[in-house]
Amino acid sequence: MLRLLLIFASLFLLPEIGMAEELATAIAEEREGAAILGLTGTERGIYTVLIFIIAYGFVMAEEFTGLSKSKPVMLAAAIIWAHAAILASSIGIPVEELHEEIEFDLKEYGALMLFLLVAMTYINAMAERNVFEALRSWMVRKEFNYKQLFWITGIITFFLSAVADNLTSALLVGAVVTAVGANSPKFIAIGFVNLVVAANAGGAFSPFGDITTLMVWQAGYVEFFDFFSLFIPSVVNYIIPAFFMYLAVPDEKPLATNEAAVVMKQGAIPICILFALTITTAVCFKQFLHLPPFMGMMAGLSVLMIYGYRINLIEKGSEEVKPFDIFDKIRDAEWDTLFFFFGVVFSVGGLAYIGYLELLAIGMYDGLGATSANILVGVLSAIVDNIPVMFAVLNMGLEMDLYQWLLVTLTAGVGGSMLSVGSAAGVALMGQSNHKYTFFTHMKWTPVIALGYIASIFTHYLVNG
């Protein structure tokens, strides 16, 4: 943890040495019309950075403390903006300008939150209708051997995460790996590493696959169909480490099971179709009507609500069937993730308002160059969650071409695979595995995962350079 704090401190505080005020002044002049306080050299400014570091330390320790990741970052966001307001007042910044900065962050968060809430609601509805349980049951009853299951679960996770988020995909298929590998802890350990890599790689080439890709798409830096040019690099990122892990998978078959087939409930397939149509609607709203994608998602949610009413009419009178309540599905959304995202957006937004992101941009992108900086973003995503890293990049006011925006989208998406704590999928699977998959079991495969990371960057250069 101390090493993590030192890394964060170096990223944020090294640019202060000898040039804080000069850089802040230069940045404020270069960024026309942007509101930046340029008070990064003050004690209060540095204090806000330390608050963020401490809060993120608690996020990283969630597995050990049991403290939900949303709680410390939400508190940090409030403290950071309180100090930002005091700093703004100390130099005579009008209250209206401060409110404009808050409203900008609120707009960013609101658009993404509504989009994710609809997606999570659909996923919960499909889970309640036994869509994923039926898939798990089918795979268990087919009695594949472990080597076959390794590829089947990995490939399913890869493509599923392009539609659902990487966390949901990893957890759903993780239940399959746990079920079929009940008598083989080694298979579960390798299988979970495989799922983390597959989930992160699969999410990198789709606007819906990860919160970071969704942020880049909604920010307008990459158009919808441009993301799919990352498909081949994403495949390379997954295949290379998967090949080496496959060699270590036990050449055995799971014990036979007499599990009965799980039957999907009324409306399961239509809900899957509605989800696909909702995503299509969101794309059309942005591409053709130039409206935010969340408007299309909300339209799809309303259709799901109406269809849920129809399901209840069909199942009415059956005492054995629990009524389909769409608000239960909304209630069961990943609120911890949504509130965590709130804390990240406003914490990073507050640090950006004080001026730290501009200093970080000069240190990384002006000092190292766009390509090296974007590769470093992926490495940072292995240490911390990629959401704050990507949000910081998006708020740096960078001028990069499509190739570089695709590069940072790729690296931020797949870089988290190098460590188990680098992505939500890894953290969640550590909790699900009952100590069969840990930080150190994942770290044994970090070298080959890093090889896949480097190979995917080189493939991106060959394909899209």
Instruction: Tell me the count of domains.
Output: 1
Query: Strand count, sense and closure of the main sheet?
Result: none
The shape, in one word, is globular
* Rounded Rg: 23 Å
Q: Bin the helical content.
A: over 70%
**Count of individual helical segments:** 23
Low-confidence stretches: 1-34
Q: Kindly report the average pLDDT value.
A: 84
Q: What class do helices, strands and sheet pairing give?
A: mainly alpha
Number of strands: 0
- Roughly how many Å apart are the termini? 37 Å
Strand fraction band?
A: under 5%
Topology as H/E string? Answer: HHHHHHHHHHHHHHHHHHHHHHH
What keywords describe this structure?
single chain, 465 residues, mainly alpha, 23 helices, 73% helix
Tell me what you see in this structure.
It is a single chain. Helix 6 (95-128) runs parallel beside helix 14, helix 10 (185-203) packs antiparallel against helix 12 (231-248) and helix 12 runs antiparallel to helix 23. The chain has one domain. It has helices at residues 2-13, 20-30, 43-60, 62-65, 70-90, 95-128, 131-142, 146-160, 166-180, 185-203, 211-219, 231-248, 268-287, 293-315, 326-331, 335-354, 356-368, 370-383, 386-394, 402-414, 424-432, 439-443, 446-464. It is globular and about 70 Å long. By secondary structure, it is mainly α.
Give the SSE map:
Elements: H1 2-13, H2 20-30, H3 43-60, H4 62-65, H5 70-90, H6 95-128, H7 131-142, H8 146-160, H9 166-180, H10 185-203, H11 211-219, H12 231-248, H13 268-287, H14 293-315, H15 326-331, H16 335-354, H17 356-368, H18 370-383, H19 386-394, H20 402-414, H21 424-432, H22 439-443, H23 446-464
Helix pairs in contact: 1-3, 3-5, 5-16, 6-13, 6-14, 6-16, 7-9, 8-9, 8-10, 9-10, 9-21, 10-12, 11-19, 12-23, 13-14, 16-19, 17-18, 18-19, 18-20, 19-20, 20-23
